Amino acid sequence: MAKLSGKVAIITGAGRGLGRAYALRLAELGANVVANDIDLNSAAEFEEQLNEATVMAECEARGVKSIGIEADVTSKQEVTEMFEAVIDTFGRVDILVNNAGGVLRPVEQGYAAEVPEDDWRTIIDLNLTATVFCCQAAAKQMKRQQSGKIINIGSQAGVRGNLLGQNAHYCVAKAGVAQYTRLLAGELGPFNINVNCMAPGMILTSRANKQFNRDSPESVAHYTQLIALRRMGTTEDCAKVVEFLATDLSDYVTGQVITVCGGMVLSPS
Questions:
Q1: What are the strands of the beta sheet with 193-200, ordered from one edge?
Q2: pLDDT digits (tens, 9 = 90+) for 2-15
């Protein structure tokens, strides 16, 4: 029997990229998957090729049930309604992967001393507030079940500083995700709920490649010199760690921030 057979997993930001990789990995392990995104067709925007018509269909091709819910996770009301729909459909929530986020504002506007108020609020809400809202909704059900796995997605940006003050809103938000993870893990531990954070480094995703030219020869040459393993990461590198955090392999692991960066955390900023 698959390790997660009968479990129900919610993955936010699952329309493409890392979220899609997490959804497919958990489906392969037998979990029924709820794919959330503000736009479940977002893969097309970044020219990411799916193997089926939708991410949900890709999950179902692995022999599990899957539904898609388009919702803005920065809205507490929409998050509440999403979790109610999941409980109505599946009756439980076993795994939550808080993947929605990103730097969706111009990098040149993100310096610490100059970041505009609207950019600040937008990026904090998308990366930190949305995580809090989803964790709170999941915690209610998981406490009733006396079990659950919450996996928050942070970033190297929330672990390391930089000498330029770049992406201050994103860095602060992801640092907040790490600390919120620790606080929530302490609170929910007595209910047999594990709460951990994964902090990816330079991962090759369809959005990063298009938005930041991350897969260009110049970018690869620059960043690999800052990475101990001398290669950029893949979505599967991160999905493997989500598997660890979602299964019984991590039953005695909670309140941790696991960096998945090929050793980039070792380099100076």
A1: 66-70, 32-37, 8-11, 95-98, 148-153, 193-200, 257-260
A2: 999 999 999 999 99
User: Which residue has 């059900």 as its token pair?
Assistant: 141
The residues annotated as belonging to the active site are 170
Buried b (16+ CB within 10 A) or exposed e, 117-155: eebbeebbbbbbbbbbbbbebbbebbbeeeebbbbbbbb
Q: Report d(CA 26, CA 62) in Å as an integer.
A: 10
Per-residue pLDDT tens over the stretch 191-247: 999 999 999 999 999 988 888 889 999 999 999 999 999 999 999 999 999 999 999
Which residues of the chain carry a pLDDT beneath 50?
A: none
pTM of the prediction?
A: 0.96
Helices (H), 16-167: 17-28, 55-60, 76-90, 117-124, 130-145
- Amino acid 36 reads N
Strand 257-260 versus strand 95-98 pairing type: unpaired
State how far the Cα of 153 lies from the Cα of 134, in Å rounded to an integer: 12
Asked if residues 56 and 22 have their Cβ atoms less than 8 Å apart, the reply is: no
Radius of gyration of the chain (CA): 18
> What pLDDT was estimated at residue 152?
98
According to DSSP, the residues that pair with 233 across neighbouring strands are 203
Closest CA to 19 of 76, 96, 115, 88: 96
